[in-house]
Amino acid sequence: MSAAPTDRTALRWAVLLILLAIASAGAGIGAELPPLSHRLNVLAEPAPAPPLRLKDIDEVDHDLADLRGRLVLVNFWATWCPPCRREMPSMERLYQELRDRGLTVLAVDVGEDADTIFAFTGQLDPAPTFPLLLDPDAQAAADWGVKGLPTSFVVDPEGRVILRAVGGTEFDDPAAIEQLLPYLPAP
Amino acid sequence: MPIAIPPHRPRRPARSFPVVAVLLPALALTAPAALAEPTRVDPETGALTWETQAHGVSLSLTQLLPDQVRAFYLNRGFAPDDAERFALACVSMTVLRNDAAPGELSFRLADWEVRQTDQALALPSLDAWLSEWEARGVPQSARLAFRWAQFPPEQSYAPGEWNQGMLATGLPPATRFELIARWTVAGQTYEGRLADVRCAD
């Protein structure tokens, strides 16, 4: 039997402090990181995006196929992954800047549970407001050919993968935004 | 019955590509080994970092202290004995970045080698570690965390792309070694070397 939403939220807050300490073990391992990238890699041959149908941390279903007509940033990540942690605030800033023009962000956590993710996002500024999807068995990551975290893809309004970013990226860098604007309608 | 990963497995040419494997070091465009002294020392932990740039690619190894590795895996569902096994396997945080190579690079860790006292050793493979964890009864969720925390066994980076992950040589603590990393760009093999790297202890 699943807990009611209010109970689930209370439970998440209850474990937040404990998980903060656990998460810090992964953060400490990531000292002395290289700089984040500021551009995405243009794929020479855009290909249809693999299927992506997952639940988010609130158990809401999401299907990439329902997002035709929008530009979608699909990000594979995990809370213990230092560059994933560093790039996530930039994804939220990008989302805030471009969502009204047609950008959707789907962040797919690989192999962790909702409580762990909730504890992590509570530390972020700005905290993500885009959907945080669960890929508990890493099947989606495998379907998308992900080899390491973080890896991100941009899917155009026709459902084709057009850009890729392997490694941590500053998604709201002007150079990165410049690459996305041609796929969005003018404001 | 645990599947042991030999810590000093001598490197053998791959059966299906014996000529390539033998000639690979000779054909590769090599770069001078990095200075023996570490590039950085973490002021908090004392962990050492070695770094080199070669052919538009940067490579670094940062010691992960056994306490760090132990804590990371205990927090992800490893039993103490299993976390200890990996904590003492000479684990480094490895970063490879395509800064300005003349195209997309591809690498396979199976092509990398560790040299220690004139002996060339292969890196323990991810599959071997995963088999060992399964045999030791490490939970599936913990094995999944382990898999994704490792430096990828193979990957391709366009210019500007990079990644990082844990890399274990399997050598005993405090051992000194040289790491030879290899990658290809448009069919040409390149090498980067880090000399006199020290396993944390």
Weakly predicted, low-confidence segments of chain A: 1-6, 13-30
Shape of chain B from CA axes? globular
Beta strand count of chain A: 8
Distance between the termini of chain A: 46 Å
Number of strands of chain B: 11
The helix/strand series of chain A, from N terminus to C terminus, equals HEEEEHEHEHEEH
The portion of residues assigned to helices of chain A is 25-40%
Helix content of chain B: 10-25%
Radius of gyration of chain B from CA coordinates: 17 Å
For the largest beta-sheet of chain B, the strand count, sense and barrel status come to: 6 strands, antiparallel
Structure summarized in a few sentences:
The complex is a heterodimer of chains A (187) and B (201). By secondary structure, chain A is α/β, with parallel strands linked by helices.
Describe this structure in words.
The complex is a heterodimer of chains A (187) and B (201). In chain A, the strands form two sheets. Chain A has a six-stranded mixed sheet. Chain A is globular, with a radius of gyration of 16 Å. Chain A has five helices and eight strands; from the N terminus they run αββββαβαβαββα. Chain A has helices spanning 5-29, 82-98, 114-121, 139-143, 174-180, and strands spanning 41-48, 53-55, 61-63, 71-77, 103-110, 132-135, 151-155, 160-166. In chain A, 33% of the residues lie in helices and 24% in strands. With 187 residues, chain A is an alpha/beta fold. Chain B has 201 residues and is of the alpha+beta class. Chain B has one domain. In chain B, 23% of the residues lie in helices and 33% in strands. Chain B is built from five helices and eleven strands. In chain B, α2 (66-74) runs antiparallel to α3 (80-87). Chain B is globular, with a radius of gyration of 17 Å. The two termini of chain B are 28 Å apart.
